[in-house]
């Protein structure tokens, strides 16, 4: 009997439906190829949920998502719901999913496909060998700290946000980063602002405590401002970066420049909970809803397709299928297919062809079909 996995699909807003549709096609194809079943559960979240139900995520949809083996999410948000005074905002869906399902660690791998070196504004020689993993703490820090509000005070309007971290919240993400480093180049860079912030000083202490259990892993503390500079000056030096929620948000967009486009980067949000198949997780591209591209066959689906590969690996225990999808993405790029965001600054050069969202996924599907299923996978 073939295995059946339950995956919640949450397309969301903007280009979310465009890219989730394509990643679903890839997952269905790989399921066919490897003889397993996917039972899809369609859920509404973000601006579309505000329009339909008045909230960014209904409690029953959160529960349904949590009942699955994994979640595939597109993006949420858009100008329609951007009123700064609004009580309900699409992003609340993300925070409800991340926080509500205790998905405390967000993994954002950054590699540079050789064929995309020309698409990055960073010099070629700096990009060679880039292979880093950002582990972003995802369910605390300023995103969840209270109070967070606007106040009327004697001096006029004031606003307050709260950066909060408990040692347990720090420790679980840091431990995961060290564990992941063991499967890689055994280097952890912990990023903080310990010269200014109390939460960063606690972060640093916890990293020092955790490192005692990982004597084989090299550790460096880096202040976030200089880290931002080093990410461009010597990106190949980094292996695993571990950092708090907002620093991770900012540094991962910066790191996307190395990969040629924000549209390339996948992510996995994981917690402690395991299903019978693997670790429960939420998978989404790191890009946003890009409303101006929505529904126009312009978005790059590769970040979501690569997120689907992470889903196969982490939540379904299907390493072979994950590696096959990653290899098919690489083959599609080698074959010259490029969505607009991936074209070199001067436009398509020899051998490159500009394609839309669906044709890009078609190129991945064709590469997948052409590759033999191999025992052990491609990497
Ligand atoms: C991300 C996004 C979100 C975040 C936004 C949409 C709230 O930028 O996933 O990186 O800041 O976490
Ligand atoms: Mg972000």
Explained architecture:
The protein is of the alpha/beta class. It folds into two domains: 1-107 and 260-379, Isopropylmalate Dehydrogenase, CATH 3.40.718.10; 121-137 and 165-259, 3-Layer(aba) Sandwich (Rossmann fold), CATH 3.40.50.2300. 38% of the residues lie in helices and 21% in strands. It contains twelve helices and 14 strands. It has helices spanning 16-34, 47-53, 59-66, 91-100, 124-127, 167-182, 198-211, 224-233, 245-256, 302-314, 319-334, 357-370, and strands at residues 4-12, 37-42, 70-75, 105-111, 131-137, 149-153, 156-160, 187-192, 218-223, 240-243, 266-274, 279-285, 337-338, 353-354. The strands form three sheets. Strands 2-1-3-12-11-4-5-10-8-9 form a ten-stranded mixed sheet, sandwiched between helices. A two-stranded antiparallel ribbon has the order 6-7. A hairpin with a 2-residue loop joins strand 6 (149-153) and strand 7. The longest helix has 19 residues, at 16-34. The two termini are 27 Å apart. The model has no long low-confidence stretch (mean pLDDT 96). Bound molecules: 3-isopropylmalic acid and magnesium ion (MG). 3-isopropylmalic acid (IPM) binds next to helix 4.
